[in-house]
Amino acid sequence: MDDSLRSSVPNIFAIGDVTGRIQLAHVASYEGSIAAENAVHGSSKKPDYRAVPNCIYTEPEVATVGLTEGQAKEQGYDVATGKFAFRPLGKAMASGEQEGFVKVVSEKRYGEVLGVHVIGAHATDLIAQAVVAIKLEATVDVMVDTIHAHPTMTEAFLEAYEDTHGKAIHKA
Fold first, then answer.
1. Cα R_g (the chain), whole angstroms
2. Strand (E) positions, 67-123?
3. 8-state DSSP, 58
4. What is the pLDDT of residues 74-121, one digit of tens each?
5. How many helices (DSSP H) and strands (DSSP E) are in the chain?
6. Residue (of 160, 155, 153, 58) closest to 115 by Cα position
7. Cα–Cα dist 73/111, whole Å
């Protein structure tokens, strides 16, 4: 199979578990869309696996995207991290879901978001914001300059991004 999901048989494409790549249902769906486009239009679009959300449906939920702090350091990045707990968020207090946090891993020089990790209520839903940030190669500064609605659980992302510069306003 090539990078455009074509198999060794002409006009046959492979997605999901048979590719031997990332074995997640949402990745297979993504690959299916690309394979269909390539088959119908004869294009050679390639999947981008840099921003794959990994979701664990436990109590509490766990969701990650991108690099861990350790992986980023191993790859030679000068790393900055920020972390913010759900506890002080108005939405978390109102819903009784105060346990959990967001951790951001970024590159110091340019501020590119390299990874985000969430543990707590709705983590598997909340991670979408970070997936988009990594897909678009957003910087921490761009994410800080993005308005986050209040009161929401996503305010934890804003505070974690700010914390990479030591500027989280509501951090205890």
1. 18
2. 79-85, 100-107, 113-120
3. S
4. 999 999 999 999 999 999 999 999 999 999 999 999 999 999 999 999
5. 6, 5
6. 160
7. 14
148 catalytic residue (yes or no): no
52 within 8 A of 66, measured Cβ to Cβ: no
Instruction: Decide which of 1.10.8.60, 3.40.50.1100, 3.60.15.10, 3.30.390.30 is the CATH code for 54-163.
Output: 3.30.390.30
Among candidates 131, 74, 84, 139, which has minimal Cα distance to 106? 139
- Token readout for 88 is 């002080």
Tokens 């191993």 — which residue? 74
Q: Which two tokens stand for residue 68?
A: 């861990």
The count of C-alpha atoms lying within 13 angstroms of the C-alpha of 104, restricted to the half-sphere facing its C-beta, is 35
Sorted by sequence, the CB contacts under 8 Å of residue 24 that are 6+ apart come out as 52, 54
Take residue 5 and report the two structure tokens written for it: 């999901």
pTM above 0.70, yes or no: yes
Residue among 26, 122, 148, 150 flagged as catalytic: 150
Taking the C-alpha atoms of residue 67 and residue 64, their distance in angstroms, rounded to an integer, is 8
- In the prediction, which pLDDT does 168 show? 83
